[in-house]
Amino acid sequence: MTERATLPPPTRPDLAVIGAGPAGLAATLAGAARGVHVTLIDSAPQPGGQFYRQPAPGLGARRPRALHHRWRTWERLRTGLDAHLAAGRVTLLSDRHVWCVERNTDPSPAPFTVHALLGPAQDESVAIRADGVLLATGAYEKVLPFPGWTLPGVVTAGGAQALLKGGLVLPGRTAVVAGTGPLLLPVATGLAAAGATVVALVESAAPKDFAQRARVLAAAPDKLAEGAGYAAQLVRHGVPLKLGHTVLEAHGGERLESVTVAALGPDGRPVPGTARRLPCDTLAVGHGLLPHTDLADGLGCRLDGPAVHVDDEQRTDVPGVWAAGEATGVGGAVLSLAEGHIAGRSAAARLRGAVPDPAEWAPADRARTRSRAFFDGLDGVYAPPARWAELVTDETVVCRCEEVTAGAVREAVGSLGAGDLRTVKLLTRAGMGWCQGRMCEAGVAGVAGCAPVPARRLPARPVPLGVLAAQPDRPPPPPPDR
Amino acid sequence: MNPLELARAHPEAPFTVRFDGREIEALPGRTIAAVLWSAGITAWRGTRGEGQPRGVFCGIGVCFDCLVTVNDRPNQRACLTPATPGADIRTQEGTGHDD
Q: How confident is the model at residue A479 (pLDDT cuts 50, 70, 90)?
């Protein structure tokens, strides 16, 4: 368990891009084309992130695009990356799980050190030096609790999609896709195309919610066309779309056997008499995405609510640190590409001591503005049921890792007087488990009636004690040839 | 239709892994979670408190629900760990340590 130093070629300023999804790839291409060396660091075996997650090479997929959207964009990114790799302008470090980015007190030999565990074993750490850091760490799924949500067979919508894209495997034969948000559409159509029977797509947003935002939606005809395309696929696969509905409960013994769904009334409560039981072996559920902000938080970057704060150049408030994509606010792949491109260009200029001209990235700036406006509008459409927490019974486990029930959380608030999420955590252990509250934070906050304050999670992923013990007090010295 | 047909997959030669002592077939490149799902297995952990069954939840390494014991090493995330020929995969009860 020793620390090894991985060093970039010493000729150009080195930008470490963390995350090889749409934002990280766009940033890498923009930076590498403009005079910096990019070290692209990603936890997966292959680049692509979640959006462009590729099937494992051993599966020999000749038509991976069947599982994807915007495939031509991926091909363009992949071609560009390959060219930069061949020219030595980019170093790709896959299967590296970054647990900490360190701002060095002594900027010589480098202002930043990125610490990453080597996958898949993750019991050895490497240190990567960089002159600047660009965080493209993406997002993970938010799932609000409901009775039965811990049963095997209940998976996150993105999780079902990840195993389908990466492993070419289905979670089961009959699926219900439920929750709220645009991700449910590709998940439902993807599962159906791959041979699953999708019993229903259960979306809590009601038709009136879309109608009220018609002007916002109409301003993005490409997005409307995309939505219409999904709707057509749902019809083709015979998937009923239940708008204004929610899952009340998942049923089963050792695994999921059925779910109960009901229509939601204007008060956000289930309408009596509308509950229906749907037999299924899979429930793919999600209520939107949450930005990965741990590395930014560890560097001391300012957060705006749940996302990393950035300026017009995608700079965080920490000098030398940029951020792009879902980490700076969830807005989809098109927004991530635009933000990544701008961040990469800004970083390339500033690391070479120049001041970038924003006019040079005007098209990306326009795409960024449009996408942000569209997603701000969507935020008002897609929402979990207003009174979802009332449906969580006292017996329901809300913190999956520590097996803390809603009853225990309510007792901490009601009898013990906890008034904030941190106190609830200290009294119940909710959020103290392996996932460090990433999976339960929103649920526990809702059940407790507290504001969801993003927890500080350092290190950003579990690190063996032996790795921490092996960390030197100072960055490793430069090699003699530098 | 199945996912392999949809992506026109021509996998390399399959190999065998063991799950709780029985042999199951694995396709190269698949994670342990994908291998178990393809064999119809959805749970491979009993929780520390109540001994409740768990399997994949988030699928991307964040939630730690899919922890499993592989070649006597407990607490491996099945969704991230590639399956290797002959791997001995066992349901993890509690912490996975003899405690």
A: low
